[in-house]
């Protein structure tokens, strides 16, 4: 019988849940920061990725 890897029941974040939009524009949030507003969702996603990479020391 093949063994399936167990996934966590409730992960801390799902990438699609990091973003929201309101009348001001698109926003991203992480555990330690809320950033925005951005004009488009693509701009917001890129800013969030850049923030996470800088925070984790991948970019200087």
Brief description of this entry?
The chain is of the alpha+beta class and 60 residues long. The chain is built from one helix and three strands; from the N terminus they run βββα.
Would you kindly provide a written description of the structure presented here, covering whatever features stand out?
The protein has about 60 residues and is of the alpha+beta class. Helix content is about 25%, strand content about 25%. It has one helix at about 40-55, and strands at about 20, 25-30, 35-40. Strands 1-2-3 form a three-stranded antiparallel beta sheet, covered by helices on one side. β2 (about 25-30) and β3 (about 35-40) form a beta hairpin. The N and C termini lie far apart (about 45 Å).
How many helix segments? 1
Query: Average pLDDT, to the nearest integer?
Result: 81
Low-confidence regions: none
Shape designation: extended
Instruction: Specify the oligomeric state.
Output: single chain
Give the % helix. Answer: 25-40%
- Side by side, the strands of the main sheet go 1-2-3
Largest sheet: 3 strands, antiparallel
Strand percentage: 15-25%
Order of helices and strands: EEEH
Write down how many β-strands occur, each being a DSSP E stretch of 2 or more residues: 3
User: How large, in whole angstroms, is the Cα Rg?
Assistant: 15 Å
What structural class do you assign from the helix and strand content?
alpha+beta
Whole-Å distance between the termini?
47 Å
């Amino acid at each position: 019988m093949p063994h399936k890897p167990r996934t966590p029941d409730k992960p801390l974040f799902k990438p699609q849940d990091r973003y929201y939009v309101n009348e001001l524009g698109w926003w991203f949030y992480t555990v330690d920061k809320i950033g925005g507003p951005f004009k488009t969702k693509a701009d917001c996603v890129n800013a969030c990725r850049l923030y996470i990479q800088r925070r984790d020391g991948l970019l200087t």
